[in-house]
Amino acid sequence: MILVVTGTSTDVGKTIATAALVARARSRGAASIAVVKPAQTGVAADEPADLAQVQRLAGPVGAIECARYPEPLAPDVAARRAGAPPLERGEVAAAVATAAAANDVTIVEGAGGVLVRLADTGGDAGPLTILDVAADAGAPIVVVCSPSLGTLNHTELTVGAIRARGLEPVGLIVGSFPADPDLATACNVEDLPRVTGVPVIGTLPEGVGDLTRDEFAQRAPSWFDPAWVPPPPTDRRMPRRHDEGVRQ
Asked: Which domain, by its residues, includes 82?
């Protein structure tokens, strides 16, 4: 099973959601799990990053990071400023395929929001985004969103962008839900499925990133709808804009 995790913006809880999905999959019998991070920014080469956070919370997983850039910017900008080569679409597709072939579950965590440029390929090819990664893998997409005021707009825009590529989001995960929500926050969890047509499959309580590994693993499955089962990957590859295909 392959699952792509994206968000409505940066800092909405994608990494915590990824760790929670790992813990849930493990609780349901997945013997081997891998997490792929196509592009990591804002950390030096020797610093722990998102994959380390997933492993700290959810335990050992296969970890594949395709590219890392030191400045906390969109990956295409960070690569350009670092004088590094742009991320290759074929490289990411191969990493996901390799992980999926060797593991029961592979989760791909994007960077920032759904249209963040992982690489600026130039010309008619258009920018590489997490939508291309999902299309190449035929993978279902889960969207992590904020519970706060403004999330209805941000989430509907994100879902619209996914559907505009001919893809379909299979669930929403609400990140960092406060213990004492205000009126807008309380209403948003009910209204998100109404405005997007996508079910809320999980709600992560605020502060769970500070739990110990044992606490996180024990509690994470309860944050999800127990009836939700991710659909299998499709066996077709979605064309990119201008029908340029996978970059080699």
From this structure: 2-226
